[in-house]
Structure formats: C-alpha cells, structure tokens
Write a structure and sequence with these properties.
alpha+beta, D-amino Acid Aminotransferase, Chain A, domain 1, D-amino Acid Aminotransferase, Chain A, domain 2, 2 domains, 8-stranded mixed sheet, 24% helix, binds 2-OXO-4-methylpentanoic acid
C-alpha cells in the first residue's frame, strides 16, 4: 500500500492550453474545463498511484456499477485568486471530510487526506492561469468518486475512481430566484442519503424541478418527506429566512446537507451580532410572516450559489412576493464571505487556505 504522507504523484502535462479560447466574462456554469484533471483509482483494497493528466474523455465499461446503481458522490469547492496573484481555497478540509462522510454512506472507501490535498494543490498550481482574480470570479472544483467495477449485481464495487476536475465560474444563479415550496415530491427521507452529496440526490430533483420551472420557478424548497410542513433545503443550497431581524434556518439532519457556506453564514451572523434561530421551520410560520410583513428575506447559501436572494415563493397556489430590502442580510453575508475568500478582509476563523 502507498504511504499517503509520501505520496507519489505522476504528472502528464497537456501539450497545449485551451485557455486562449475561453471568454472568462461569458461563462456558463460548469461548461468549460481547465487543461488538467486529477485521477486516482482504487483496486485490490487500496488507492493506487494518483495522476494528473490532460483533461480528457475516459473509457468505462457499460457495466460499470456507477451507471446502474448510482454509486457516486461529489463535492463542490472553489479556488480564488487575490490581487497579488496568490491562490486561496475556502475551508477545504471541510470538503475533504465531507466527501469521505458521503462515501461512507454509499459504502465507498475513504480517500486519503494527503492524496486529496497533494492532488488538488498540484492541479491548482498547474492550472493557475484559469483562476481569474476579482470578486465574483472563481475556479469551481469538482472532486468526485465513482464505482468503476464492471458488474451489474447490486452490491458495492471493488474498484473506484476519485477525480478532480476544475471549471472557471461566475455566478450560479443570475437574477432573482423564485421558488416553490414542495407539497408532493420529496428530496430525502429519514435514514436516507439526504445529508450526503450523493449524485442520485440531485438526479431525483430534476423532474419535480422541471415541473416547477414550467410554472416559472427556478428551484424547489424541499419540505420534510413525512408531513411537507417544515422547510428544509433547496437541493443546490441551504435556506435561510429572516423574520424581522432574526435569521432562521433548519437544523442539519440526515435529510439536509451540512453546507459549508451555511456553517460560515451562521458564524458570520454571530460575528455581526445577528440573532439566529436554528429550528424546524414551519411553512405556516413563513406564510404568516410573509402576510404580516415580518418576513424580510429568504436566501439560499451554497458553494456554487454563494448567497442567492429569493424574491418570491409559492405554496398552496398562493404566491408571495418578498419586497426588496435595502439593508439585506444576504447582500452583507455575500460581501463578507467573498472578501474573506479573496483575501481582502481579515480571516479571523482561519477559513482561508493558501495554495503555495
Ligand atoms: C455546490 O454548491 O457546489 C453544489 O454542489 C451544488 C451543485 C448543484 C452545483
């Protein structure tokens, strides 16, 4: 078995760069990929020698288990470049820990921390030109693990592939986000995989989200599967409600992703002296607050989405428009987060990690 603390990493550099063809001002999220990718295979009970190689298509057998049983997990992270050209990650250890928690739930092997960081940091240094400076720009990083073993029996694989691919990104949502509160479909259930970044969690949302989009809503805010009475998360984001000046959000559970942006906002709220109520959030309470004017904001928080204000919601065939707030918490949290991420403001919680 390879000793992760002395990780060998084989590197094959791309002969040419695709960067000359990229219009960084007009990026569609997740469509453009950098020159290189990180790959490490698991076989014979161990992670094999990791590699960085040119970004390229790969061959898998049609019987690879990932295609049949969705044994796949992923992470979402971002790298930032400051005005001096230094590269920063934001709370990367949290992502490294979370991908292994997701893997454990899907009966997949943990990926060693040393491999994760060596692969990620080497990749970022090789593709550094793809990280554009300036608030609002980032390189979105997508670590993921798939079951590669060719076998269609429904059981965990014996071979896996861990990879990291990188995509320059601007905002995930542009413009106002209107949401539907879920009344029929569910994203996750007690004892399920809702807390994990399991690929299937996302696929399961596509159909109901497409129905919501036909009605003019970008996203669904999922409610608890048993009663549909409590608001949970949005699938691409955790959700916060501002009732008067109190920030309200659902507690994490086995149904809700333990979002790193969510965690950071809760800390920033404390730093800013904002009252926080982490509690189950009844749909009825939010509707009542919208009616009596105490609902000041709803916003989503996630790595890709950063902080995205929600301008309206529908539930029970009633549409509630949320008036714009010129002293919005969402705008303040977004600014504070981005200034920490881009090495503009003090990092008093040690969230920044420099890639040297
Ligand atoms: C992220 O925010 O990084 C996610 O994984 C959400 C995804 C839908 C882009």
């Amino acid at each position: 078995m390879i000793d992760p603390s002395n990780t060998p990493l084989s590197i094959e550099k791309s002969a040419t760069s695709k960067i000359v063809n990229v219009d960084f001002e007009n990026l569609t999220f997740g469509r453009t990929f950098t020159d290189h990718m990180f790959v490490c295979d698991y076989a014979d009970g161990a992670w094999q020698e990791p590699k960085i190689m040119p970004y390229q298509a790969m061959t898998l057998e049609p019987s690879a288990r990932v295609f049949h049983y969705g044994q796949a997990v992923f992470e979402g992270m971002k790298a930032f470049k400051d005005a001096a050209g230094k590269i920063w990650l934001f709370r990367p250890e949290d992502n490294q820990e979370r991908i292994n928690k997701s893997s454990a739930r899907l009966a997949m092997p943990a990926f060693p921390k040393e491999y994760f960081f060596k692969g990620l940091e080497t990749l970022l240094k090789m593709d550094a030109a793809w990280i554009q400076p300036g608030v609002g720009n980032s390189l979105y990083l997508r670590p993921f693990v798939i079951a590669t073993e060719p076998a269609i029996s429904a059981s965990p694989a014996n071979t896996y592939r861990f990879m990291i691919i990188c995509s320059p990104a601007k905002a995930y949502y542009s413009g106002k986000v209107r949401v539907l509160f879920a009344e029929k479909y569910s994203r996750s259930a007690n004892g399920g995989v809702g807390f994990a970044k399991a690929a299937g969690n996302y696929a399961a949302q596509f159909y109901p989200t497409a129905l919501a989009q036909e009605k003019g809503y970008q996203q669904i805010i999922w409610t608890d599967a048993s009663t549909h009475e409590f608001l949970e998360e949005a699938g691409t984001m955790n959700i916060f409600f501002r009732i008067n000046d109190t920030l309200v959000t659902a507690p994490i559970s086995d149904r809700i992703l333990d979002g790193i942006t969510r965690r950071s906002i809760l800390q920033l709220a404390e730093d800013n002296g904002i009252a926080v109520d982490v509690k189950r959030v009844p749909v009825s309470e939010i509707k009542e607050a919208a009616r009596n004017g105490s609902l000041k904001e709803i916003f989503g928080a996630g790595t890709a989405a950063v902080v995205s204000p929600i301008s309206a919601f529908e539930h029970g065939n009633e549409v509630f428009e949320i008036p714009e707030n010129d002293r919005s918490f969402a705008a303040m949290f977004k600014k504070q987060l981005q200034e920490i991420q881009h090495n503009i403001s003090e990092d008093k919680h040690g969230w920044r990690h420099e890639v040297k």
